[in-house]
Amino acid sequence: MSDFGSILLWVIYPYAMLLSFVFGTIIRFGWFRGGITAVSSEMLEKRKLMVGSLVFHVGIILAFFGHILGILIPKTWTAFFGISDETYHIFGSLMMGTGAGLLALAGIIILTYRRFSNPRVFLTSSWSDLVVNVALLITIILGLASTISSGFVEFDYRSTLSVWARSLFYLHPQWQLMATVPWIYKIHVICGFAIFGFFPYTRLIHALTLPWQYIFRRFIVYRRRPRY
Ligand code: HEM
């Protein structure tokens, strides 16, 4: 790929998505706070939602912490705590990463099936709800495929892709490091950044709110209408 193509993909594109994430979130919380919601469709279908949502959230939260460990924390830090490259690859990446990824995948398959197959849920979904589901499904499949491929193909993402990702944060992007990264990882990263870019304008924004009021508020008492 030409230098221009690489700079476009590994410098301009990720910064554009991160800026969209930061400013979109500030604008959404500052001016449109009232519209922040997970847009629950529980009253339209409950069984698949309960299973799919639980499994998906457990998987994606574990995968999130896996990304912090594998991408944001340098190898030298894990080595300091006695975690060798091999231990990290087998236990952190192949076992825990694949486990988390499979949970997230099972959850998002159930949720996507539910959204597209249940007429009531489908007809009340916005375009953004449908796109978010499909985008998560594709990104999770690609992430999982990257992790599983590392069991067969020798590739150390922690000394290439992760160093590039961190270089974005200290504003000195080392885009050349992406040259040797396999395409399966690259497409996963492109999809991942797209999700970040569109995050504030979709239902995903609910992930940035913690519903503290549920812990402290009074119970809401629902009673059946008596039948006479
Ligand atoms: C919302 C966005 C994203 C989602 C839903 C997602 C999801 C996943 C999943 C499910 C896996 C499988 C392994 C695991 O569970 O950790 C994975 C792996 C991976 N992801 Fe992501 N990801 C996202 C964004 C990103 C971004 C932005 C990057 C890079 C900057 C990235 C880099 C990686 C790498 C390097 C792996 C392989 C990890 C390994 O083999 O241990 N991901 N991702």
Automatic annotation (TrEMBL):
Transport is among the record's keywords: yes
TM segment ranges: 12-31, 51-73, 93-113, 134-153, 183-201
Alphabetical UniProt keywords: Cell membrane, Electron transport, Heme, Iron, Membrane, Metal-binding, Nitrate assimilation, Oxidoreductase, Transmembrane, Transmembrane helix, Transport
Binding site for heme b: H57, H67, H188, H206
InterPro entries: Heme-iron_electron_transfer, NarG-like_domain, NarG-like_sf, Nitrate_red_gam
Keyword presence, Transmembrane helix: yes
Membrane topology: Multi-pass membrane protein
Record-level GO cellular component terms: nitrate reductase complex; plasma membrane
GO BP annotations, alphabetical order: anaerobic electron transport chain; nitrate assimilation
GO MF annotations, alphabetized: electron transfer activity; heme binding; metal ion binding; nitrate reductase activity
Gene3D superfamilies, alphabetized: Transmembrane di-heme cytochromes, Chain C
Alphabetized SUPFAM superfamilies for the sequence: Respiratory nitrate reductase 1 gamma chain
Subcellular location per the Swiss-Prot or TrEMBL entry: Cell membrane
Residues covered by the NarG-like domain: 7-225
NCBIfam families (alphabetical): narI
Record-given protein name: Nitrate reductase, gamma chain
Phylogenetic lineage: Bacteria, Bacillati, Bacillota, Bacilli, Lactobacillales
